[in-house]
Specification:
The chain is of the alpha/beta class. It has 17 helices and eleven strands. Strand 9, helix 14 and strand 10 form a beta-alpha-beta unit. The longest helix is centred in the N-terminal third of the chain and has 31 residues.
Length: about 425
């Protein structure tokens, strides 16, 4: 009996540590993002036991944190150890932070040294509150028609992510390196610029995304401007000319070109992609590419996608990320589609700080005339849409019952991979 009790306890401990590490990994082990998460309903998923299985991606760091979490847990009585696991896992992350920081510094230094041997490499930096990944993918696709191109993978847009890309993938054949640059506070884009020294910079637009971390709209503008200020005089700044915060932002010592919406027939959904395409075309023309094949752009994980899904319903999937501009564009796109019944599901937008209520009320006002039903999964967001909230499991149960081939469903914002997989599977 004691033997079975130990096995059950071990499995419960394993599940709880996995749950807590999932959230730390999701927030990139950053204390600022983690604190912001604890201010939302997601704290309950972190702090409280759950039947839902949360699994972090298996990495060397995760394995070390698993070991440390187990080790610290054995310092307490079994029941107390289980209850204190959210704190214990946080302690393990804190304990490992200095070593992780030192390792990151060494990796970044190694990347800097490697770049010294690539004098002819031209770096193109892309930043903004939205549209970074899509612009990066479109531009890389166009440039690759003529030149050997390296791009940062997926949303690997931090200094360490860029450094790892350099060490793993950069070789002597590459002529251009397209770098997505993300930030949650001042100085982070400047740090990436010091590493890669961009000659060309694209600023895709600025809004309130991650306002809760930056503290103010002014800080967001300053952070995104760090790319423009890092460009050399013989470089090029390409700036969104229709965004309210960037259209007058000619602060680079490099020549600045402003762009608006392109009017090209492409296989990507949503008006926002015309903005991303316009920026990419300006850079491509600057680099000597005059003709483009825009009919076969790659399908982007970061963009709206249309597919048949659960119960043959039409699914518009915008779950890669969510920001005010993207949410608004998705609503506008769906409003023009000829479906009698339209449904919106969303967890809302994270890290908006003091502007969360205002922005979600605005989005709700835009969504209500378009959608027949709206479902929200986060309790703090639901009041703005004036709907009841429910878990992913509850929502999936409801959608399974009501969706038909005559329905259109917009998925707006981050949901679990399992949830998205079920909804986007073509089931009759």
């Amino acid at each position: 009996m004691v033997y079975w009790f130990k096995i059950i306890y071990f499995l419960l401990l394993l599940q709880a540590i996995s749950r807590c590490l999932y959230f730390w990994q999701l927030k990139e082990y950053r204390w600022d993002r983690f604190r912001a998460m604890l201010a939302t309903s997601a704290r309950n998923q972190y702090l409280l036991p759950s039947l839902q299985l949360f699994r972090p991606r298996l990495t060397f760091k995760i394995l070390i944190l698993f070991y440390l979490s187990f080790y610290f847990s054995f310092l307490f009585h079994p029941l107390l150890a289980y209850l204190l696991l959210p704190l214990t896992v946080s302690l393990a992350v804190l304990f490992l932070a200095p070593l992780t920081g030192l390792l990151y510094d060494l990796i970044i230094l190694a990347a800097k040294i490697k770049l010294l041997f690539y004098k002819k490499l031209t770096v193109i930096g892309i930043t903004g509150s939205y549209g970074k990944t899509s612009t990066k993918e479109i531009l890389s696709h166009i440039l690759a028609s003529k030149y050997p191109v390296l791009k940062t993978p997926l949303n690997s847009n931090t200094t360490i992510g860029v450094a790892l890309t350099i060490l793993k993938s950069l070789n002597s054949t590459h002529q251009y390196f397209v770098v997505e640059m993300g930030a949650y506070r001042l100085g982070e884009i400047a740090a990436i610029c010091r590493l890669v020294k961009p000659k060309i910079g694209i600023l895709t637009g600025i809004n309130e995304q991650h306002l809760g971390l930056f503290g103010s709209q002014e800080n967001i503008i300053k952070a995104k401007s760090e790319l423009l200020l890092a460009l050399p005089k013989n470089g090029l700044a390409v700036v969104n000319g229709v965004n309210q915060f960037t259209k007058k932002l000619a602060i680079s010592q490099a020549p600045t070109k402003f762009y608006g919406y392109a009017k090209q027939k492409i296989n990507l959904l949503g008006q926002g992609q015309q903005l991303n395409l316009s920026a990419a075309i300006i850079v491509a023309q600057y680099l000597g590419i005059k003709k483009f094949d825009l009919t076969h752009l790659p399908q982007l994980k970061s963009a709206l996608t249309l597919t048949k899904g659960l119960n043959q319903a039409t699914i518009i999937n915008d779950s890669y990320n969510s920001n005010p501009a993207g949410f608004n564009q998705a609503i506008k796109y769906v409003s023009d589609l000829p479906f009698k019944t339209k449904i919106l599901i969303t967890p809302g937008i994270i890290e908006l700080g003091s502007q969360s209520a205002k922005i979600h009320r605005q989005l709700a006002a835009q969504a209500k005339p378009v959608f027949d039903q709206i479902f929200v999964t986060k309790p703090e967001i639901a009041p703005y849409f004036q709907v009841k909230t429910g878990s992913e499991a509850d929502l999936l149960q409801k959608l399974t019952l009501i969706l038909t081939k005559n329905h259109l469903l917009l998925i707006e914002g981050r949901f679990s991979a399992k949830f998205i997989k079920v909804l986007c599977s073509n089931q009759s």
